[in-house]
């Protein structure tokens, strides 16, 4: 965030404050933010031929990696120094002073924010994992019960009713039973391989009736051959569960990332809304660059979550990012006549918010973006050397570019 502007008090009398220019800056920030965050999402929802899609995905990946560097540099260069400066100002109470207080408030708040986010993400992810594990165990119990039916039938021998149909087929068909085509599939397996057969039940000796069984039998999303051979679904279900868990973990991380970015964006918007004179133009240009590439990083993250096409969540997440900085600018315009960036309240609020945002972006940037998508990503590790060099270069260039912008913003 930009340093407190000594020209702000002049705005109280209407001097040097160009309202039209500030409103134009508000819409310019909204346009840059919207363009950045929507580009990856729109491309992800658009169908191209295979070659074009591959090139677009590579370009989006590179831009997203560049944006990750921007986010990391934003925390290190823009937020932390500003937070340390605000919370060590001589006008603040003694608790912030070196002689009798504590001078590491900015770092402490950032550290606590990162640790709390780590705990929050773990708790949310663990809760989802536990539910997914319980669902898998219930499905396995259903499959084992059907397998047990097969074992019992194998011991008693294969019998057919007068119509030439296994009794288990008629039992299930009579009670809402197998989906259309499922029985014929099982019969085809039996005919192809006599060693694989479907058991049947005599006189209702075994009742396999529970909510999970009924749900799985009645929903065609469960493959018909699951009932023919339970072990055949284990690897597929496990793989699907792992993918679902990974997607859920990325989703939680994206929400955390957006919260940190939005918090910081509102603060820098307020700063832009209260800045006057020549400094406003340089700050506006820096923020347009800043918001665009932050948007690309966030949009790429949203696009990777595999939302359903009719889901509103990717668009709501994009909209919140797009309006966060303009919202801050609007607040700044509204309070320009009373806002004093050098007041104790303003310094403490700005320092605490910047510290929290720094902790959030450092955690998400270093752990979720840089480490998870590169070091811990088997696809990236198996990629060719050229791709790896391009991505590392993009990461460092993004960080370097944002560090340079730190001279003005």
UniProtKB/TrEMBL annotation:
Membrane topology, from the record: Multi-pass membrane protein
Regions crossing the membrane: 20-45, 66-84, 104-129, 255-274, 280-303, 315-335, 347-369, 389-408
Pfam annotation, one family: Zip
GO cellular component: plasma membrane
Keyword tags: Ion transport, Membrane, Transmembrane, Transmembrane helix, Transport
Cell compartments where the protein resides: Membrane
Top-level taxon: Eukaryota
UniProt record similarity statement: Belongs to the ZIP transporter (TC 2.A.5) family.
Name of the protein: Zinc/iron permease
